[in-house]
Design goal:
3-stranded antiparallel beta sheet, 6 helices, 139 residues, NADH Oxidase, Nitroreductase, 17% strand, Nitroreductase-like, oxidoreductase activity, 48% helix, Frm2/Hbn1
């Protein structure tokens, strides 16, 4: 908390006031999993596959999202609670994490998943529309 406050204060007025309570809640987490993309790896893939080069940032987002879902599901199956945050949206926070963990400069923080005991019971599942209204099969 002591390290986070000056970083978020530097991010702009009111950032710490808005996010401080969230950081306070995360102090009890057992751990955090950080999801990074290597821009160098994306650029290398773009150079190798020029016809699809414009798609590789989107492909990276898809891959990161799939990893997040997979890890969250695995944690939940083991009885843990988790939440997903996007500290990369606050450049000073991402820079501080990068420096603290000695992460290469070409990496960009996509998300961080905190996990531990469930803080509260799962909410009721909302009603879903039937597949006939949400899925279209084209033959």
């Amino acid at each position: 908390m002591d390290a986070a406050k000056p970083v978020l204060d530097a991010a702009g007025p009111g950032v710490w006031d808005a996010m401080g309570p969230m950081f306070e809640n995360h102090k009890n987490a057992y751990g955090s999993i950080l999801f990074w993309d290597s821009n160098k790896a994306i650029e290398e893939a773009q150079d190798t596959h020029k016809s699809a080069a414009h798609m590789f940032h989107q492909f990276a987002d898809h891959a990161t999202g799939m990893a997040q879902i997979l890890i969250w599901t695995a944690l939940e199956l083991e009885g843990f609670g988790a939440n997903l945050q996007h500290m990369g949206a606050i450049p000073p926070a991402e820079a501080a994490v990068r420096k603290f963990l000695d992460v290469p400069d070409d990496y960009s923080l996509k998300a961080n998943m905190n996990f531990g005991e469930e803080a509260q019971p799962h909410p009721e599942k909302p009603e879903k529309l039937p597949f006939s209204e949400t899925l279209k099969i084209v033959k």
